[in-house]
Amino acid sequence: MPLSPADSRSDRNLLHQRGSAQTSTDEPSTTKETFMTAPTGATVRAHHRTSLVDRAREIAPVVAKYAADNDAHRVVADEAVQAMVDCGLTRALQPARYGGEEAHPVEFVEAVIEVAKSCTSTGWVLMLLGVHNWEVSHMTEQLQDELFGDDPTTLLSSSYAPHGTATPVEGGYILNGSWKSSSGVTHASWVILGASVEADGKPLMHNFVVPLAEGRIIDDWFVLGMRGTGSRSVELDQVFVPAHRALDRQILLAQAGPGLKKNDGPLYRVPQGYLYNLVAGAPALGAGWAFYEEYVDQLKKFTRRFDNAKLSEDRVELLRTNDVRVRLDDQQKVALRILDEGYRLAELGQVPGDLEAARGIYDAARTAEAALYVAQQLMPTMSARVVHELNPLSRLYRDLIVARQHFTQNTDFAAATAANLEMGNPAAATFLLSEAERTAAADRSKRLYG
Q1: Which of 214, 248, 282 is the last residue of a domain?
Q2: Cα(100)–Cα(89) distance, rounded to whole angstroms?
Q3: SS3 of 5, please?
Q4: Which of 37, 49, 248, 429 has the maximum number of C-beta atoms within 10 A of its C-beta?
Q5: What are phi and psi of 242, to 5 degrees?
């Protein structure tokens, strides 16, 4: 069942619900009322609680403390994850009725950026944990009860690429195979896995939610960067998944999921492509800012040995440093504006048009590219000492390279989709449906869920 107000474990969570005027006698710092400026420039009333961004900054010392260890051990430290759970960051996009925040997605992304400034991998894991709770809010109430009814702090990892198979059987599906790169899987108790299933006479991608206790985690995350994400593989051997734990992805994109009957706030009407295209982008922004700040700090202390020149006084260095700062700042504003516009339309009961959505997805897909640009421009100007693993710039550079490789940051694919729509050409898209697909998905949802 959904979280009960009488549940002692929910007391703190209920104080953090959106719009709550309650105050806490033991935690006064979480109930102050503030005002903030939205990306659109409008002044809006903040929640009656400490903002997610402030909470992210409060736990920054804990996150930063384990950044190097995360990279070395190839997994985020338990202490860092627990800090994010304890302060509510992992529940930011979770329904209030299940002990979540139902926060504005812009605020959540800003919090992810702050965490990623201290450790890219930790920010990456936080972003994924948050969007997974957003996603399952579109699924059946029975599943949400299983996940959050007894423990609102439940964490889910994912691996969406169809590396394994799903076979329909009576009452559900049999999943079999191995799924790659499930970030944060060692901290989760459930995992979302992707596989193709025939629906309406054609193969359609589905997402399946599976208890990790029924699978096996394979330690195979040996990579260039983002090492601390612990993105290991998940292996299942003929595991039965009941039908209520599965969702057709087109039903999700069509905003026709059964969970929206009760989770009817604007947060859950924000286009998936706007939010998911920042899965890699938001942590990359944090890493980009961290690289910039660390670079400036090192630059101030750096003197070239062969001519004793101070690089911090070199005109080319100064111009280059200012250029990357402006580009990074501009891209962050663009990304947050896209999310804010999606939320504003959702509040009005509207959705962006196809071309507008495709352009928004493309603009979001450029985020990791902009962040990597910072490192690409600044890294070569320093001495060879920056390539040593003990130098934070080395780790951040590697993290940015890997973040840029995520499928959500494929600017070529996103650009082609937007351009084809503008020209009236057929367009393949990861997060967009044709009108016919939307109608068919809504019809399937009605048949399945009433």
Answers
A1: 248
A2: 9
A3: coil
A4: 49
A5: -65, 155
